[in-house]
Amino acid sequence: MTTKPSKTLDTFDNPKPDRDFTIRIDTPEFTCLCPMTGQPDFATLKLEYIPDKRCVELKSFKLYIWSYRDEGAFHEAVTNRILDDLVAAISPRFMRLTAKFNVRGGVYTDVIAEHQADGWVPPVAVVLP
Q: Is 55 a catalytic residue?
């Protein structure tokens, strides 16, 4: 195998740092282990962010997400850890991570964690008729 899971998040320069624009990344195959039972947990991760000076490189993001496959983690903890690691790597203006965990014992869990840079003001939404 030429690639392996990694906790390293590579980045690249934002091609348009003077503009607020949104990057959305859907990851439908996230897996980690339940820390209580060791059974696999499955989730779709929805990442949305407005970059500042840096963007996350997608292959490294994929390998980073893969690195959780054999780790035990509560849903709330792993969602916040991923957000914290991404914020540390790229210092975005805004970032939201939504983790939609599949059903387990009749219970679905959605965890939403957000970061907003100090001093950043969201643009006013444009509503078209």
A: no
